[in-house]
Amino acid sequence: TYVSIRLYDGDEETAREALELCRTYETIFSRTDADSELARLNRRESDTVSQELADVIALGLEYGRLTGGAFDITMGTVTRLWDFHAQEPAPPEAAAVAEALTHVGWEKVHVEGTSVRFDDPETVLDLGGIAKGYIADRLAEYLRAEGVTSAIIDLGGNLCCIGRRPDGRDFQVGIRRPEGEQSQSIGTLPIRDRSVVTSGWYERCFTLDGTVYHHILSPSTGWPAETGLASVTIVSGLGADGDALSTACFVLGQEAGLALVESLEGVEAVFIGRDLTVTVSSGLAGRFSPL
Ligand code: ADP
Ligand code: MG
């Protein structure tokens, strides 16, 4: 993930410290680093974890409950069967997916204080759908404590805006056009002091024999979620909530996702269909500017 921290006030030292903080969190949450605290927990090397890891797991489980399992941090046995960066990526065997699914279920994990208990010794946690949002929140917290009043933190699609632009106007955050160039926006939202997180099928995917395989998986089937959506953007106070909810809403689909968003205080959403139709939640009515 490319990390970009843009400060409109504050100094370079503060920015450097924030990047350092990112590296610290990576040692906790990384999926690829076999030495990360998460990797060690997945190998059951210890059942007591840092407060940070316990907090993210607990929040992830909470979103498992809230979304009826559409967001599930126990998808690790399934997600590890997929390699989207392989030279010649291929989908896993159906039998392997079916076996992996038997270890999935957020109800099988329990957090008490900083101790984590698994009902199933094989269950593997994957925090890829929530950790970046949490880290963005911690960076924002640090920057605010350092007196920064205007900044944008971007952790690869997880955006956190601190305050507003130096000229006093809201930040204009572009929502990426699901097709075409990375830099193209389908529209913009005025944002001040909010987090903006997008989950899209195009983030990590490959096409084989005419079928697109992407990285947001349905916990009920173990296969990429096909709900007619190209992306879901969540605007919320905290990035951790936005991260979990953007992934969850993608899995739930527009109807159930929108109903969930409307039921939550201070959470708004932009749904973009595969056909590029744009649907916004009630709190964003009239605020999304198409390009
Ligand atoms: P990105 O990482 O591209 O920002 P997301 O926040 O949507 O995208 O997270 C997708 C990642 O979350 C996947 O790469 C995988 O690690 C994990 N994941 C996939 N499906 C689910 C799911 N249904 N619930 C929770 N996590 C998931
Ligand atoms: Mg997410």
- Spatial strand order of the main sheet: 1-4-5-8-11-12-13
| Class inferred from helices and paired strands | alpha+beta
Nearest-integer average pLDDT: 96
> How far do the termini sit from each other?
27 Å
- Major sheet characteristics: 7 strands, antiparallel
- Heterogens: adenosine-5'-diphosphate, magnesium ion
Shape: globular
Beta strand %: 15-25%
Rounded to the nearest angstrom, the radius of gyration is 19 Å
Order of helices and strands: EHHHHHEEHEEEEEEEEHHEEE
The total beta strand count reads 14
Number of helices: 8
Helix content: 25-40%
Residue runs with pLDDT of under 50 for 5 or more positions: none
Explained architecture:
- This protein is of the alpha+beta class and 291 residues long.
- The protein contains eight helices and 14 strands.
- Strand 12 and strand 13 form a beta hairpin.
- The radius of gyration is 19 Å and the shape is globular.
- It binds adenosine-5'-diphosphate (ADP) and magnesium ion.
